[in-house]
């Protein structure tokens, strides 16, 4: 009896999915700027090849070649591709991808051109799909889109590209599309971080904000101050400096920048495990001792080391949730404040601005959490990007003040808020109430935040996905192509979520609030 009911429910679900499918056949996520398709089909040749004739980019670093290998891997990982297409009409056999990259340069940096054009003809002799991009990173986005056009054909056991011919013209709406990971609250092993990076590339996110250290632990080796990582949880939960370089390089080869953060002067208690003089006192350990020159020497050493591996234009200096009561109650700090005629809030400002100057001296522009702006916005370096998190309406004030902004309002874009739904993630609009085009340009993008208090390597993927994907479309897709009602994209997002599962990413179901487990038996597409 139970089974019959279940079958019936599943059938209903299937009918629903098919109905949605009929009106929404383009399953690409995030939705490109422009897409057109036909009704033919091509079959991928067994020796599907990469061709780069006419490219000004020589791929000495192998970024494109590796991207192509990963494309083949994600296409082949789902099923055994052992069909014999040698009897097929050769004009329908897709021989490979012809990729033309116009810029010889493959430096990954904020604001690079990420656009691409992808076309797949209906037939030809021989027939090649074609990607043209200004940069190799735009071409990588083109490969991601191409991968989403393909599907395994169960009759012939080969990979098929249905609905040819395809023409896709695409570019991102925002140049900063971030995901925060937090390796202080829980250590994340390298393979976990690399899996997150791979999955980010599937959704065309392009900044991994690495909140490396915080109150609870200091896992990263800092060559200039080798006792800092005494603050790690354990001897195994650490990153060598070479590990950090490896993460940066792994991300860069996938078109993803790494934004490194030290969150000062609050959120830094763990620094004092190795260097107790960074604490105001043994009994009052946070924020960092503002009165001690050594504090700024350490920040200088860290940022000097950072500048050797974290090549992104920005470094994040935190600056949020600073509780200055330790400065008030610690005699030597209080004495210093009096001597310098500063009250606690002036000392907070002094600390943040001094840290900013150190970052500038190492060639960085700065990201700071919004409290710095809320307290002394007109004193911040003009090279500051204000990182919103407390709530809505901040971006508007920031850009009116002429500074740049990243949007991460916690009520909508904090992944650790487990009851925030994917629909809320999707509908969170960074330019809300900002109408002046010059001010709109100052909102450089947004970021979803996977704070680590309650997640670790065991459940990070299903907490990030699929909700981060909803935000990824908001950040990638041009405003007029975004759904006004998230119900319009449910089927397509479910498809992307199942695609992530097929690629080995533990993305959670869509149905229900926030991160959920599957509620009942049924097709992936209806969960
Ligand atoms: C594929 O099919 C052709 C005939 O259509 C046959 O000659 C060839 O041996 C087959 N190859 C394989 C690997 O099965
Ligand atoms: C600030 O820290 C002190 C102890 O260091 C604590 O007693 C106080 O409650 C904190 N204030 C806030 C607003 O969290
Ligand atoms: C600190 O001093 C400034 C400048 O005199 C003043 O505006 C501010 O209200 C003071 N803050 C506190 C918390 O006393
Ligand atoms: C946008 O403006 C409206 C009307 O002033 C206001 O109610 C709303 O809270 C604002 N939204 C944000 C996110 O600032």
Labels describing this entry:
single chain; 527 residues; Chitobiase, domain 2; TIM Barrel; eight-stranded parallel β-sheet; 14 strands; disordered N terminus; binds 2-acetamido-2-deoxy-beta-D-glucopyranose
Describe the structure.
This protein is α/β, with parallel strands linked by helices and 527 residues long. The longest helix is centred in the N-terminal third of the chain and has 22 residues, at 2-23. The protein has two domains: 26-170, 2-Layer Sandwich (Chitobiase, domain 2); 176-478, Alpha-Beta Barrel (TIM Barrel). It has helices at 2-23, 63-76, 136-149, 190-202, 241-252, 271-274, 293-309, 325-329, 331-339, 344-361, 370-376, 394-400, 410-413, 422-427, 437-442, 460-464, 467-476, 490-502; strands at 34-51, 93-101, 116-120, 127-133, 151-153, 158-170, 176-182, 207-211, 257-261, 314-316, 365-369, 384-387, 404-407, 443-450. The strands form two sheets. Strands 9-8-7-14-13-12-11-10 form an eight-stranded parallel sheet. The structure holds 2-acetamido-2-deoxy-beta-D-glucopyranose (4 copies). Keywords: Glycoprotein, Glycosidase, Hydrolase, Signal. The active site is at residue 321. Belongs to the glycosyl hydrolase 20 family. Residues 174-478 form the Glycoside hydrolase family 20 catalytic domain.
């Amino acid at each position: 009896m139970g089974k019959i009911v279940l079958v019936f429910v599943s059938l209903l679900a299937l009918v629903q999915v098919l109905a949605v499918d009929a009106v929404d056949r383009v399953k690409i996520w995030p939705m490109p700027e422009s897409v057109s398709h036909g009704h033919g089909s091509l079959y991928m040749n067994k020796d599907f090849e990469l061709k780069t004739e006419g490219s000004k980019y020589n791929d000495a670093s192998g970024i494109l070649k590796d991207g192509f290998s990963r494309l083949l891997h994600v296409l082949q990982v789902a099923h055994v591709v052992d069909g014999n297409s040698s009897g097929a009409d050769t004009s329908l056999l897709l021989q490979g991808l012809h990729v033309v990259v116009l810029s010889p340069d493959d430096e990954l940096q904020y604001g690079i051109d990420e656009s691409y054009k992808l076309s797949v003809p209906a037939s030809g002799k021989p027939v090649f799909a074609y990607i043209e991009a200004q940069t190799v990173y735009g071409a990588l986005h083109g490969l991601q889109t191409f991968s989403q056009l393909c599907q395994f054909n169960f009759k012939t056991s080969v990979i098929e590209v249905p609905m040819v011919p395809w023409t896709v013209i695409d570019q991102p709406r925002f140049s900063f599309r971030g995901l925060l990971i937090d390796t202080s609250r829980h250590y994340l092993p390298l393979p976990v971080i690399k899996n997150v990076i791979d999955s980010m590339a599937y959704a065309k996110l392009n900044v991994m904000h690495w909140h490396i250290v915080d109150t609870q632990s200091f896992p990263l080796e800092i060559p200039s101050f080798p006792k800092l990582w005494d603050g790690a949880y354990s001897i195994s939960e650490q990153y060598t400096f070479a590990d950090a370089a490896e993460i940066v390089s792994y991300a860069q080869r996938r078109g993803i920048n790494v934004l490194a953060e030290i969150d000062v002067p609050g959120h830094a208690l763990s620094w004092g495990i190795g260097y107790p003089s960074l604490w105001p006192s043994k009994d009052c350990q946070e924020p960092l001792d503002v009165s001690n020159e050594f504090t700024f020497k350490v920040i200088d050493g860290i940022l000097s080391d950072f500048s050797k591996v974290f090549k992104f234009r920005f470094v994040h200096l935190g600056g949020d949730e600073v509780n200055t009561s330790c400065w008030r109650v610690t005699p030597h700090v209080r004495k210093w404040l009096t001597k310098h005629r500063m009250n606690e809030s002036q000392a907070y400002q002094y600390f943040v601005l001094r840290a900013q100057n150190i970052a500038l001296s190492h060639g960085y522009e700065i990201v700071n959490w919004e409290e710095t702006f809320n307290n002394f916005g007109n004193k911040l370096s003009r090279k500051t990007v204000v990182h919103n998190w407390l709530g809505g309406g901040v971006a508007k004030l920031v850009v009116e003040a002429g500074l740049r902004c990243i949007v991460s309002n916690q009520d909508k874009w904090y992944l650790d808020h487990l009851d925030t739904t994917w629909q809320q993630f999707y509908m969170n609009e960074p330019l809300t109430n900002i109408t002046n085009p010059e001010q709109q340009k100052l909102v450089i993008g947004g970021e979803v935040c996977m704070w680590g208090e309650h997640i670790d390597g065991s459940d990070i993927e299903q907490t990030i996905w699929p909700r981060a994907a909803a935000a990824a479309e908001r950040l990638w897709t041009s405003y007029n192509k975004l759904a006004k009602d998230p119900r319009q994209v449910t089927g397509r997002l479910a498809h992307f979520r199942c695609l992530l599962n097929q690629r080995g990413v533990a993305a959670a179901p869509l149905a229900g609030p926030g991160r959920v487990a599957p509620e009942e038996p049924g097709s992936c597409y209806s969960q």
